[in-house]
Design a protein that fits this description.
It is a single chain. The protein has helices at residues 22-25, 30-35, 58-68, 116-129, 159-163, 193-207, 211-220, 236-239, 270-281, 293-299, 360-372, 376-386; strands at residues 5-6, 76-83, 86-97, 102-103, 110-111, 189-190, 267-268, 304-305, 311-313, 318-320, 327-334, 337-344, 349-355. It contains 12 helices and 13 strands. It has 414 residues and is of the alpha+beta class. The strands form 3 sheets. A 9-stranded antiparallel sheet has the order 4-3-2-13-12-11-10-9-8, sandwiched between helices. Helix 3 (58-68) runs antiparallel to helix 11 and helix 4 crosses helix 7 (211-220).
């Protein structure tokens, strides 16, 4: 994913005729978090989302995706729908491999790319609950900053900075270290995978385990993500989707990581990732695996503003804040794979969408809009700000062939 430098919009003057809502002004203090108590109401029938006039049926979803997939120049798509905190629908569409004709199923494995980050953030916050890591203690106390950056200001980078993309580190440097800071830590938002990798160094040191073991034991296993792994597994040769370029040619350099990376190496299914979202949507008592209530609310509370339209970033998640109901979201972009997930704690609903084509993000947009509604502000920021308006549109459909001219028969002819 590309770097996106964006200054701190919280310093911008706001329109006089549109004051900020209470939710947009919400901070991350414990008192505010606890004041927003979560309802633990008994299970009820799924209700329409605040952003959507009605909940589409499974057959409606099938018809919509099957009708849209051929137009999108995307070989395949897998999705899972969560309602009332439970996975209620999972389906695959199209082809995982065009050459063999293998179909996409709910068990098809995809590269999740940056969707690795929220899963990693979950493990990080659990370490913070145990006192092994602190959100606002400089990471230099756990892993020397001099190893990653020559700027003395890097010694101030904290866990919170890394999780909220305010560390000042660049997005990717292809392994080049030490790096240069783009700005002082905490000064503004700029998407940084390198910030997550620096945090990974600290996490592995304080946990005394590799990231792969930590994620298996703290996130993937407890969440029931049985088909997921932080590295490439032999079984993926037959279960993983093939990624495709803009022109539907297969991606040549296939990513098969042998070491876990906090920013991008999770291989998972739409159904498995939906199980992770369920842990954030279901009321539960805190235990050794699941986050307690305060940690969950901190994760999904705004830490830095993205724009004046209700978009912000939490601890590992993008946020869409609205008086109609707050939502959390993230997307993944790896060559040949595009994915998107979003959820609502208020509605206890979510959707996970994985595709195996470069055009897949726009397909994710359409499908998420159909199922959940209210996607335009998020995707407008992704398209216009993150991709700077450079993400390709779908190919124009081929014009229908002109009808053959009808020959008139001469009078009296047969």
């Amino acid at each position: 994913m590309r770097s996106t430098r964006q200054h701190d919009c919280s310093k911008e003057p706001q329109p006089k005729d549109k004051p900020l809502s209470r939710r947009e002004l919400l901070g991350s203090s414990s008192a505010a978090l606890l004041a927003m108590g979560m309802s633990a109401a008994p299970m009820v029938q799924p209700q329409a989302s605040a952003f959507h006039r009605g909940v589409p049926s499974d057959s409606d979803i099938d018809s919509f995706v099957n009708g849209l997939l051929p137009q999108s120049a995307t070989p395949g798509l897998s999705l899972a729908v969560v309602r009332e905190g439970q996975v209620v629908y999972a389906q695959g569409y199209g082809r995982a491999n065009l050459a063999t004709g293998r179909a996409v199923t709910p068990q098809t494995v995809f590269q999740s790319a940056s969707l690795t980050k929220p899963a990693f953030a979950y493990a990080v916050l659990k370490l913070c609950e145990r006192g092994q890591l602190r959100l606002d203690t400089p990471l230099n106390a756990y892993a020397p900053a001099s190893l990653i950056c020559r700027d003395p200001s890097a010694q101030r980078i904290t866990t919170r900075h890394a999780l909220t993309h305010t560390s000042g580190l660049p997005n990717w440097t292809n392994g080049k270290r030490p790096m240069d800071l783009q700005f002082a830590p905490g000064e503004s938002f700029s998407y940084s995978s390198e910030g997550y990798l620096y945090l990974q160094d600290a996490v592995e040191r304080v946990a005394g385990r590799t990231l792969r073991d930590l994620m298996d034991q703290s996130v993937l296993g407890p969440a029931g993500m049985r088909d997921s792994s932080m590295i490439w597994m032999p079984a993926h040769e037959s279960t993983a989707a093939t990624g495709y370029e803009w022109d539907l040619t297969p991606v040549e350099s296939v990513s098969k990581p042998t070491e876990a990376g906090a920013a991008s190496t999770l291989h998972t299914t739409a159904s498995d990732y939906a199980m992770l979202l369920c842990t954030l949507l279901q009321p539960h008592a805190p235990d050794v695996y699941r986050l307690d209530y305060v940690s969950e609310r901190m994760m999904l509370s705004p830490q830095v503003r993205l724009n004046a339209g209700g978009l912000a970033w939490g601890l590992g998640w993008g946020l869409h804040l609205s008086d109609e109901g707050d939502r959390f979201w993230h997307w993944g972009d790896s060559r040949g794979f595009m994915s998107y997930v979003m959820g609502s704690r208020r509605d206890k609903s979510a959707v996970t969408i994985f595709t195996n084509g470069r055009h897949g993000l726009r397909l994710c947009h359409e499908v998420a809009e159909f199922i959940m509604g209210g996607q335009e502000p998020v995707f407008r920021w992704i398209y216009d700000v993150f991709y700077e308006g450079k993400l390709r549109e779908w190919p124009a459909p081929a014009p229908a062939p002109a009808p053959a001219p009808t020959k008139r028969r001469r009078k009296g002819s047969r």
